[in-house]
Design a protein that fits this description.
Layout lengths: L7 H13 L1 E4 L5 H17 L27 H7 L2 H11 L3 E9 L15 E3 L4 E7 L10 E3 L20 H5 L1 H18 L5 E2 L7 E5 L4 E3 L11 E8 L3 E4 L4 E2 L12 E5 L7 H7 L1 H8 L6 H12 L2 E5 L5
Antiparallel strand pairs: 1-7, 2-9, 3-10, 4-7, 4-9, 5-6, 5-8, 10-11, 12-13
Bound molecules: 2-oxoglutaric acid (AKG).
Length: 320
C-alpha cells in the first residue's frame, strides 16, 4: 500500500485492528437494511425452509437458528455478506481482496465456548481471514452478547496438532475431541494468561470485525426470553491457501459465498419457456450457447429439449 493512500479514519481502523485484534464500526449497516435482511430470513424459513431449520424448541436452545450459510437462500443475508462497506473494510484489513465465504445467523445468544476462527477456517500463510459480526437488533446485556478477548490475536496460533487432535480425529470421533482437547486448552489459556473479556453490547447496525486469531465466543445468556439477532460473516483473502484445519479439507472458496436461491424445477413447455431458467437448469446447454455451438436455449429446446423432457429452474424468490 502506498504512503498517503489511507484516510485518517482508515489508518485508525488499521491501527486498532493490529493492536487489539478487533475494531467496532458503529452504524455501518443502516437499520432498514438490517431489518430487511432479518425479515427475509424469517420469511424464507417460514415459507420454504430450504436450510432445514428445525421447529422452534419448547425451551431455550442457544444453537437454534444458527444455520450455516443462509446467504445461499436468503438474498437479504447475501446482501450483508457482500455488503460493500464491510467488504471494503475487510479488504483493507487483510491487505488483499477478500472472498466472502460463510454466514451464521443467531436468534439467541450462542453461548459458544471461546475459540479462534483459525482452527475452523485456516490459511497458509496464517492470518488471512477476518469475520464481521453484525448486530441485527440492539443487543441486550442479558441476551448473551458476543464475548472477545482484546489482544489475544497476538498469542501463538493454536491449531489441531498443537491441541493434540490428529488428522482425521474430528471426522472419526466427532465434536467431542474438539470440546475435550481444543476448547479445554483455550479455557486454560484464558485463565493462565489472565485474559480480560469484552462484550459487544451493540446497537442495531453496528459491526465488529475480528482478526483470525482473536479468541471469542458467546457469553452466557442470563435471560433466555431476550433475542440476540445477528449475523456473523467470514472472509478469506485471495491468493492464499484456504482450508479447514480441524477437518483437513480445502475450503470451497470458489462457490461458498454464492446465492443459490429458492429454486423449483419444472418441465419446460412452449407455454412456460424462459431462456434464463432453461439455461440455469441445463448447464450443458448453457455451455454450448456460451461457446457458440448452438444459438440459444430455445433452439435447443425445440430441437432436443422438448422430446428429452428438459426442465426449467425457477427462482421463486425473484419470480414475479
Ligand atoms: O455469535 C456468537 O455468539 C459467537 C460467534 C462465533 O464464535 C463465530 O462465529 O465464530
Amino acid at each position: 500500500m502506498q504512503a498517503g493512500e489511507l484516510t485518517r479514519e482508515e489508518a485508525d481502523i488499521c491501527r486498532k485492528f493490529a493492536q487489539d485484534g478487533y475494531v467496532v464500526i458503529p452504524g455501518l449497516i443502516d437499520p432498514e437494511t438490517a431489518d430487511a435482511a432479518w425479515l427475509d430470513y424469517v420469511t424464507i424459513w417460514q415459507e420454504s425452509n430450504p436450510f432445514n431449520l428445525p421447529a422452534q424448541p419448547d425451551k431455550f436452545d442457544p444453537t437454534w437458528g444458527r444455520t450455516g450459510n443462509v446467504h445461499k437462500w436468503v438474498m437479504g443475508m447475501h446482501g450483508l455478506l457482500h455488503h460493500p462497506k464491510i467488504v471494503n473494510l475487510i479488504d483493507l484489513l487483510l491487505g488483499k481482496p477478500c472472498i466472502p465465504y460463510q454466514t451464521i445467523p443467531s436468534f439467541y445468544g450462542s453461548e459458544q465456548p471461546a475459540h479462534s476462527d483459525a482452527i475452523h477456517m485456516t490459511t497458509f500463510p496464517l492470518g488471512f481471514l477476518a469475520a464481521a459480526w453484525i448486530a441485527l437488533e440492539d443487543i441486550h446485556p442479558d441476551s448473551g452478547p458476543l464475548v472477545f478477548y482484546p489482544g489475544s490475536h497476538k498469542l501463538p496460533y493454536l491449531l489441531s496438532e498443537a491441541a493434540g487432535i490428529g488428522i482425521g480425529d474430528h471426522k472419526r470421533l466427532g465434536r467431542r475431541v474438539y470440546i475435550e482437547k481444543y476448547e479445554k486448552m483455550v479455557q486454560d489459556l484464558i485463565r493462565t494468561k489472565e485474559l480480560k473479556p469484552s462484550f459487544f453490547t451493540a446497537n442495531k447496525g453496528d459491526v465488529l470485525i475480528w482478526h483470525h486469531n482473536l479468541l471469542h465466543g458467546g457469553s452466557p445468556v442470563n435471560n433466555p426470553e431476550i433475542t440476540r439477532k445477528s449475523l456473523v460473516c467470514h472472509y478469506f483473502a485471495e491468493g492464499v491457501l484456504c482450508y479447514h484445519d480441524l477437518d483437513n479439507a480445502l475450503a470451497d472458496i470458489a462457490n461458498n459465498g454464492d446465492y443459490i436461491g429458492i429454486v423449483k424445477e419444472e418441465l419446460a413447455t412452449e407455454e412456460n419457456f424462459d431462456e434464463q431458467a432453461y439455461l440455469l437448469a441445463n448447464r450443458d446447454v448453457a455451455e454450448a450457447v456460451k461457446n457458440g455451438i448452438i444459438p440459444s436455449g430455445y433452439s435447443h429446446f425445440q430441437s432436443f429439449g422438448k422430446s428429452e423432457g428438459r426442465k426449467l429452474r425457477v427462482d421463486l424468490k425473484t419470480q414475479n
